[in-house]
Write a structure and sequence with these properties.
The chain is an alpha+beta fold and 585 residues long. It has 17 helices and 17 strands. The protein is elongated, with a radius of gyration of 38 Å.
């Protein structure tokens, strides 16, 4: 009989050798020993592991400990090696944080100014790391400043160690660096860079500010050349083509396209692309040329309030707010104040400022906030005085962009190819009735006393382009029902007004008119439009003390830039666009 059977028999039948007295408690050690004897194949250790499993765990723990010790030793040796003095250590590294601690006589050279005249000279450049490539002991960088790029090469030699080369190759893209370099003539022109006839050889290099290694998207992808057909779908973030189609496969082969929504969500990175650098310098140029022309023609720049009581143009498309317990709104236009300034004897005035429209328009050309280029001027006899001045103004702007911003336009067209903008002199001037006739002759249905739809504007633009060989023209004498209350009616036909729109590539970029300057007529017109006269009392009163006949216009800056460069979407020409769905960043 085995031990287990004898033990079981004693448990069931009792042990005659046991006394009738209460059995003494079994010591803990003995109880555990008994349990082990009861289950010899399931011996337990603390934590529920068998001896076999415990030995295995101990063996694994020992192996892991030895591995960690080896890794620690390797790291220690690597650290020790890294701490060894590099004879070129002073020639590279992370620069000290700039806290305005000193002002030196150092001179930085712009990337755009690096040319063949500097070959053989050592220069200092601050720029971003656009791309990098480390190949053995040779490192290549492309530095970018605005829309200019230049190649940099580094290799071990006098003043440059292998460790320095490795350091340079590990700098994250978009980091800002200071580089002392010698300007050389490359064996072959570097066609991938704007400064293709020169390259820089590293002498010293310091990281001014490191970028995070993981960017929201790669600038190479955001800079990819867009085809005309892609603008309305991919750029908007909507891809209407079925997965696996030939078009989709082609895009996968050429690389990812960054959608417009992703660009706008990460606008700081997106604005760094060479095309965007060009777009917003052109935008700045439009404002500069606008100011130049108007200053030359005796205009005075003004600054009008953007917080208004009531509404600036009437209607419901205003952003309302509480102004210390009073109802107020954001200005839809500086229109009323421009006129008031003319009545104050400032004859010719202009303003560049924000305009707010609470319109739920989800189109390629509408925004809730945009930059207005506004003009107002006194006239002697006829509103054509304004039309002629505006024609000369736009011609001045277009010619200035061509001559002064050729490099920026080239950078834009590299990503967004567009046909050069055509503006005929003198500017083509058509009446609304003539425009309707041209549409009707082309088989387009256009009622004579109704405003043009967006589609008919584009059709008329194509007709004018074909007939007059111009992308820019003006249309005047609009129907009365298509204009605001302060627009002067035509003397010969009250169904029409002394008003006008200007068009670029078939889309409206400015709207204006001769204004009503007679106070009683103005009040009557306001009432006809359902505007409480009391809310515009200051405006009407400004014409009661001798009023100049006058007129003007409002121009949308972003539309001008969008259409001149044929960008396809107004959000591309706004630094931080605001539409019904976007309020950040």
């Amino acid at each position: 009989m085995c031990i287990r059977d004898r033990w079981y028999q004693r448990r069931v039948h009792g042990d005659n050798r046991m006394s009738d007295q209460q059995q003494q408690p079994v010591p803990a050690e003995q109880e555990v020993k008994q349990q082990n004897v009861e289950n010899p194949d399931e011996e337990q250790k603390e934590g529920g592991l068998s001896k076999k499993a415990q030995k295995k765990a101990e063996k694994e723990a020992k192996k892991q400990k030895e591995k960690e010790e080896r890794q620690a030793e390797a790291a220690k040796q690597q650290q020790s090696k890294a701490e060894e003095a590099d004879p070129c250590q002073a020639n590279y590294g992370d620069a000290e944080l700039i806290q305005s601690q000193e002002l030196t006589d150092r001179v930085w050279t712009k990337v755009a100014d690096i040319n063949e005249e500097l070959i053989g000279k050592e220069i200092l450049v601050r720029a971003r790391v656009h791309s990098s490539r480390l190949k053995g002991n040779l490192v290549f960088l492309v530095l970018r400043e605005h829309y200019s790029t230049v190649q940099v090469v580094g290799f071990p030699g006098e003043g440059i160690s292998k460790r320095m080369v490795k350091f340079i190759g590990d700098i994250p893209k978009e980091s800002l660096i200071d580089i002392y370099a010698k300007v050389n003539k490359p064996e072959q022109e570097v066609l991938s860079c704007t400064q293709h006839k020169v390259e820089l050889q590293v002498v010293r290099l310091y990281v001014v500010s490191r970028s995070l290694a993981n960017l929201p998207f790669q600038l190479e992808d955001a800079s990819r050349t867009m085809k005309k057909g892609e603008r309305e779908d991919l750029e908007e973030g909507y891809d209407f083509r079925p997965p696996g189609s030939e078009e989709s496969k082609k895009d996968e082969k050429e690389g990812p396209v960054v959608s417009l929504s992703t660009r706008l969500d990460n606008r700081i990175i997106d604005l760094r692309t060479m095309a965007n650098q060009g777009i917003f310098r052109v935008s700045s140029g439009v404002c500069q040329l606008f100011r130049e022309f108007l200053y030359k023609n005796s205009f005075v720049e003004i600054h009008t309030p953007k917080l208004l009581g009531g509404t600036s143009e009437g209607g419901a498309n205003v952003f309302r707010l509480n102004y210390f317990g009073k109802d107020a709104c954001l200005a839809q236009s500086p229109q009323l104040y421009k006129q008031m300034c003319v009545m104050a004897d400032f004859d010719r005035v202009f303003e560049i400022g924000p305009v707010f429209r609470a319109e739920k328009s989800f189109t390629h050309r509408h925004m809730c906030e945009f930059t207005g280029l506004d003009i107002e001027m006194a006239i002697k006899e006829h509103y054509f005085e304004i039309l002629d001045l505006l024609g000369d103004l736009f011609a001045y702007i277009f010619e200035g962009l061509e001559t002064r911003y050729a490099a920026e336009l080239k950078a834009i067209s590299a990503q967004y190819p567009f046909e050069p903008f055509k503006c005929k002199r003198p500017v083509v001037k058509l009446t609304f009735e003539e425009g309707v006739k041209l549409l009707q002759e082309a088989g387009v249905d256009q009622p004579p006393l109704e405003d043009l739809s967006t589609e008919n504007e584009k059709k008329l633009g194509r007709i004018v382009r074909e007939k007059y060989d111009t992308d820019f023209y003006m249309l005047h004498r609009y129907p009365a029902n298509a204009r605001p209350f302060y627009t002067m009616l035509c003397k010969d036909d009250p169904n029409y007004t002394n008003s006008y729109d200007f068009f670029m590539r078939g889309e409206e970029i400015t709207s204006g008119a001769q204004r009503v300057h007679e106070p009683n007529l103005l009040a009557k017109r306001a009432e006809e439009f359902g505007i409480p006269v009391a809310t515009i009392k200051d405006y009407i009163d400004s014409f009661k003390f001798g009023a100049y006949p006058h007129g003007g216009c409002g121009i949308g800056l972003e539309r001008v830039v969008m259409l001149y460069c044929d960008l396809g979407n107004i959000r591309k020409s706004s630094h931080f666009p605001r539409d019904p769905k976007r309020l950040a960043p």
